[in-house]
Write a structure and sequence with these properties.
By secondary structure, this protein is of the alpha+beta class. The chain has 2 domains: 2-51 and 274-407, no CATH class; 82-263, no CATH class. It has 14 helices and 14 strands. The protein has helices at residues 2-16, 18-53, 75-79, 86-96, 133-136, 149-153, 163-169, 213-220, 239-254, 269-312, 314-322, 327-363, 372-398, 402-407, and strands at 60-64, 101-111, 113-115, 118-119, 124-129, 141-144, 158-161, 180-183, 186-194, 199-200, 203-204, 208-212, 228-232, 265-268. α1 crosses α12 (327-363) and α2 packs antiparallel against α10. The longest helix is centred in the last third of the chain and has 44 residues, at 269-312.
């Protein structure tokens, strides 16, 4: 009962100085808000990155001119590398032999496909690829067929379309197979439609047209074009050996001398996920540092507010002591006030951070999430701030002499 009465007194004191309490709560809330908002977005982004990277087939890795993620070196350094031409890519494919599935791909973005008077959004990709594209990018044919080796060898004007393109150009269950669609100045016959894969973080995975890479190069030329190569090992056990073999075969196809460094990048799903994890960890560390500074400043604010409160309520403390309140009761009351301010600020910061973080995620097309671990950590830290920065004012209040306190004006 005594503890409950102490809590009631502490809350009553906070309500009596509402504006001061709200300002202190805001200071705590801002510090917690920044870290919770950032961690909510980072959690969703990590999930998005992992989902995006695992679009590639299992046991796959890629070879290309530029690194997939570049946060330090200037892009000009990689721009001076030789392009991976179609001749080099085909030579590499031959050198790898039948033991690996090698897929070649080159793309143009932000194009429009049309059929009769219907048009897609200007956000479509035109992919020049080969017969291994379905396996490399983990797609499945819903109707029709995939690109065949003959289609690539003869540069046939045929295409496989994604479900978004099908829905735009062939609504009301109209059969697209055999139809002639136009992309830019080129016309292609639809031979297949893929199973829809939906979108991730606002980015559609079905807005594409796949054509034979030889046909793509005829339409857009090979000048200043670099091809990406996807290699899929037969199984997990042979993945590492296949990657080492691919490096050697690529160096051979590029005509590199033994002392020359690699002039290409090779990366897998796991390596990209690990790299992005390092980047998000650095962002989280920066946000944590900013939040720590904000919370320390807010903690100093809590201490100042409580010291002012002790000074203003000196006579009240004297009256309570004179009618039997013990030192521990006064200490508990003021300490509870400080902890309450910190915890309420922490809860407000968590709610605001989750709301803003998820608003950003929903805007980008992701799914709502809640960083439970960081929320619990924020509550614990706010409690420690309340105790740490409220202890001195509470001790000062508990240590007041009742006679001197009663004489205070």
């Amino acid at each position: 009962m005594l503890f409950i009465e102490t809590i009631k007194l502490a809350l009553a004191s906070l309500r009596a100085n509402l504006l001061r309490s709200l300002l202190t709560i805001c200071g705590i809330a801002i510090g917690v808000f920044s870290i919770i908002a950032v961690m909510t977005v980072i959690g969703a982004m990590e999930s998005f990155i992992e989902t995006t990277l695992t679009q590639l087939g299992s046991n796959s890795f890629q070879i290309q001119k530029y690194p997939a993620i570049n946060m330090s070196d200037p892009r000009a350094r990689f721009r001076n590398r030789r392009d991976i031409t179609h001749q080099v890519a085909e030579r590499f494919k031959q050198l790898m032999g039948e033991g690996a599935k090698v897929n070649l791909v080159i793309q143009r973005r932000n194009l429009v496909a049309s059929y009769k008077d219907r048009r897609t959004n200007p956000a479509m990709q035109l992919l020049g690829t080969d017969e291994n594209c379905m396996t490399a990018f983990d797609y499945t044919i819903a109707s029709g067929r995939n690109l065949a080796p003959d289609d690539v060898a003869l540069a046939k004007p045929v295409c496989v379309i994604g479900d978004d393109v099908r829905a735009k150009l062939f609504p009301n269950n109209e059969d697209p197979l055999g139809a002639l669609i136009r992309v830019g100045t080129q016309t292609y016959t639809v031979i297949g439609v893929t199973v829809p894969k939906g979108s991730t973080m606002g980015q559609s995975r079905d807005a594409f047209v796949m054509v034979p890479i030889t046909r793509w190069l005829m339409a857009y030329s090979s000048a200043r074009r670099s091809i990406s190569i996807n290699v899929q090992a037969p199984d997990t056990a042979s993945f590492a050996a296949m990657q080492d073999r691919a490096i050697g075969m690529m160096r051979l196809a590029r005509g590199l001398a033994p002392e020359d460094p690699n002039d290409f990048e090779i990366f897998s799903n796991d390596s990209l996920i690990a790299t992005t994890k390092k980047i998000t960890d650095l962002i989280a560390l920066g946000a944590l540092g900013i939040s720590a500074i904000a919370l320390i400043a807010a903690g100093v604010g809590v201490m100042n507010i409580m010291l002012v409160s002790v000074t203003e309520r000196t006579k009240e403390i004297g009256v309570r002591k004179s009618i039997g309140a013990k030192k521990v009761n006064i200490l508990a009351q003021f300490l509870l006030e400080a902890v309450s301010l910190s915890l309420v600020g922490g809860i407000c910061g968590i709610l605001l951070g989750v709301i803003l973080g998820n608003a950003i995620i929903v805007f980008l097309g992701g799914s709502v999430s809640f960083p439970w671990d960081w929320a619990f950590m924020a509550i614990a830290v706010c409690g420690l701030i309340g105790v740490g920065f409220g202890m001195y004012p509470a001790w000062k209040a508990a240590s007041l002499d009742p006679i001197e306190a009663l004489r205070h004006e």
